[in-house]
Amino acid sequence: MAPKTVAELVDEARRGSGDARDELVRRHYREIALVAVAITNDPTEAEDLSQEAFIRAFRNLDLLVDPDRFAPWLRRIVVGVSIDWLRSFRPNLYRGWDGSDEVAASSGPSPLDRLLHAEMAERVAAALNALPPRYRVPVRLYHLDGLSHAKIAAALDVPVGTVRSLVARARRKLAPLLAAYAPDRSRTIDEVFEERAVSERAPTRFLHVANGTCTTRIIEAAGIPGARSIWADPLYEGPVPGGVSDEELLETRRRFHAGAEAALDPVNDMRRWRSVVAAHEAYDELVLWYEHDLFDQLNLVHLLSWLRGRLPAGTAVSLVCINAFRALHSQAVPIDPDWGPRVVVDTPDPRDPTLFPPGVPLTPPNNPAARQPGQQDLRQGNGPGGPDELNFQFVLRTGYNFTIFFNNSVGAMKEGIGSNWLNGTPADGKRILDLLRSLPNTDLNFATLSSGNTDENGWRDSVYWAEALRPKIMTTGHAPIGAALQYYSGFLDQLKLMEQPRNAWPGFPRSLWPIVRNHTDPTDILKPEVYSTGDPAWSNPQKAPRIAQFCS
């Protein structure tokens, strides 16, 4: 059957068809998102603005005189939405739309800018950003996003000849800017922005689909690039009929949920989540974040079933298995006679006043009345359940099953005591250590070296942890300001001390030690650690049976 025309889809969408709206989003999302990115120069905001443009369009479909003109009408909406956003949140950029040909004045690059601009690609990006928007937008859409002159003209509602002229003039304006940013390079502006038959590949765009806002907020806080959406419904409650259309299923679920609280209609959210996932052509990969409990597994099966037939052949779908469990938060205990006292002195770093200038701290004080704007309380102990410690393991379900483990604290493992489990016993500590030994083999552990037990027992608990988890790479953090290097060397000394067996301790042979990578000061934090999930180094035949146990 021939695909429906845009006019037919618009007509059906006017009559309330969710499938028609989803198809319109699928066909036009990528182009709309590129326009928003070009105007705002902010990919994250552009995703939100693109969705806002579709919402406004669907609310006002009756105002569209010619349904065949849906695409240019939608492009004008996203241009308006993006400019409104600039006016409100980026007034300096908004003023660049007044037609002025003046290049934005620079206040001088920061040290971080100088570091980033060491590479030619970043220098080109900086030069692009200095252009007035009337030039930056078309040249970016053409050279970096791969749109044709005709599509750019339709998006900006100007003649094709105007677009060609703007792109050519932009290249001429870039020549002196690029020379200023990269005087040591001999490549000319024509070589950087040459006319090409095949567009340059844009950076990989991810859509992360998760089981709820808790996971999406973690993804956002971790700085993982990409858009985020949710797919969640307690499918183990109420009717879930088979052999029905998606709209019929949604109506069944709506009636079930409305029975408990008439004002609650989560199906509206489900439709919105579907519209985001349906726009798969705007992304290079979907990453699905689900755990192995019944709620998550039923939603994952439902989502994969829904995706079947909607994704073209070859679309990559990476399943991420999340293992989470309650652990022990740090707690001081008496000195362990097996290892003796370990004296730890936090040595101030003379660079502290420069590296950590006075300002508003991110973590607010305990007194709510003393909190200041911009502060965020990310401490686990301030949740409704009180102080606690949660650990997470992420297993990528493709290739070599690259696995990351995160823990921001470690309790007194030998005694089984934590600040969240003060009445613990050695059996509790053993139970957690046995769980660590049974998990899918960990490739990268982002771990802590700071503990409430450090002053009494040094880094004994961190060694207990590393011996049980046995990660290939251990990236250490969470150390006192100015003492990170001292904590790093102290941990290595503790590894040497505990290498051989002693009493009930089995020993931790040097051949099993992880590669320890330390964050000693902010300059390390600014250097991203990049790992290829396709590296054969992550191959481990022991992973498969453990993944089958925890992630099936």
Report the total helices. Answer: 22
Distance between the termini: 38 Å
Return residue spans where pLDDT drops below 50 for at least 5 consecutive residues. 92-121, 181-203, 260-264, 382-386
- The oligomeric state of the chains shown is single chain
From the helix content, strand content and strand pairing, which structural class follows?
alpha/beta
Strand content: 5-15%
Can you summarize the main beta sheet?
A: 9 strands, mixed
- Any idea what the shape is? globular
Number of domains: 3
Helix content: 40-55%
Q: What is the alpha-carbon Rg in Å?
A: 28 Å
Strand order of the largest sheet: 2-1-3-4-5-6-7-8-9
Count of beta strands: 9
Summed over residues and divided by their number, the pLDDT gives a mean of 76
Describe the structure.
The protein has 552 residues and is of the alpha/beta class. It has three domains: 6-192, Winged helix-like DNA-binding domain superfamily/Winged helix DNA-binding domain (Arc Repressor Mutant, subunit A), CATH 1.10.10; 206-314, no CATH class; 325-360 and 378-551, no CATH class. It contains 22 helices and nine strands. It has helices at residues 6-14, 18-40, 43-59, 70-89, 91-94, 111-116, 120-130, 133-143, 149-156, 160-181, 189-192, 213-221, 246-258, 266-278, 294-307, 352-355, 426-438, 454-457, 460-469, 484-497, 522-525, 543-551, and strands at residues 206-210, 227-230, 285-291, 316-326, 390-396, 403-406, 444-448, 473-477, 515-518. A nine-stranded mixed β-sheet has the order 2-1-3-4-5-6-7-8-9, sandwiched between helices. Helix 2 crosses helix 3, helix 7 (120-130) crosses helix 10 and helix 9 crosses helix 10 (160-181). The radius of gyration is 28 Å and the shape is globular. Mean pLDDT is 76; it is low at 92-121, 181-203, 260-264 and 382-386.
